[in-house]
Design brief:
Blueprint: H1 3-29, H2 35-56, H3 85-92, E1 100-104, E2 110-112, H4 114-118, E3 122-130, E4 136-145, H5 146-153, E5 161-170, E6 173-180, H6 181-184, E7 190-195, E8 198-199, E9 209-211, E10 224-230
Parallel strand pairs: 1-10
Antiparallel strand pairs: 1-2, 3-4, 4-7, 5-6, 5-10, 7-8, 7-9
Helix pairs in contact: 1-2
Length: 255
């Protein structure tokens, strides 16, 4: 890479970081009910998304590591063991009765067992998990690639986002997340059922968690129960596209 190209990348990266900081900082200080402030924050977030996609490209891969780089102690964050009765019943039976429901704007809605997911095109990857709290860990993940699964069920033309509904509840609200189709069809976006060579543990999202490697950790939803293709998430929960987004975090958390 030439020096001018490197300088330009650093400039865009700085702008993107500044936009992100503006969005998160303002959310802490200003009321989310103020529509004018909300529009400003959304503009900054859109700039971040545009700059990230311009810099990195839609198909560029997140860095992958070697086995020797795997963290000895991968921090488990968020929910460690959902206390929801339905989830606990599934866990007691080692998720034999669990089914991944896929619906919304799809041609062929489906319900898949873990065995059926394991039979789909899969990918193994050793990547770094970056948390918004400031820590990072490296882990090995294996799971079904989301893109081929979406092709299998057939997205309708109006579908723009994929929403993930989860089995854990935080402060009275079910956890959920969403990504757009660019990230949904990225080769490193997987529905992980293994971690570090073994079955995905409960503390890390069993039986299934999302890995979207080019975004911060809160986007990698755990305990996935249902997937839905939608045209908009404006009328889903708080309308911001995710549990933490409804509470002020950015929807696009690119790194």
């Amino acid at each position: 890479m030439t020096k001018p190209e490197l300088g330009r990348r650093r400039l865009f990266a700085g702008l993107a970081t500044g936009a992100t900081a503006l969005g998160l900082g303002a959310c802490d200080k200003l009321s989310a009910s103020d529509s004018s402030i909300r529009k400003i924050l959304e503009s900054a977030e859109n700039l971040t998304l545009w700059l990230q996609r311009l810099l990195i490209g839609r198909s560029a891969l997140a860095r992958e590591f070697d086995e020797a780089d795997i963290s000895a102690n991968f921090k488990a964050n968020g929910t460690y063991d959902p206390d929801d009765e339905d989830y606990q019943a599934l866990a007691r039976n080692k998720f034999a009765d669990w089914r991944l429901e896929i619906g919304g704007l799809v041609e062929r809605p489906a319900k898949l067992t873990l065995e059926e997911l394991r039979a789909l095109p899969s990918r193994s990857q050793i990547t770094r998990h970056d948390c918004v709290e400031g820590w990072s860990c490296i882990g090995k993940w294996k799971g079904a690639q989301l893109g081929p699964l979406l092709r299998q069920v057939g997205l309708k033309p109006e579908a723009r986002y994929i929403v993930f509904y989860c089995g854990d509840t935080l402060e009275g609200a079910k956890y959920y997340e969403s990504i757009d189709l660019v990230d949904a069809f990225h080769p490193q976006t997987i529905l992980a059922y293994e971690m570090n060579g073994g079955t995905l543990p409960v503390a890390y999202g069993a039986p299934l968690r999302l890995r979207v490697e080019r975004q911060l950790g809160y986007k990698t939803a755990k305990y996935i129960m249902r997937i839905e293709a939608v045209a908009s998430f404006a009328k889903i929960e708080g309308g911001r596209g995710g549990y933490w987004e409804d509470r002020g975090y950015e929807w696009y958390a690119g790194i």
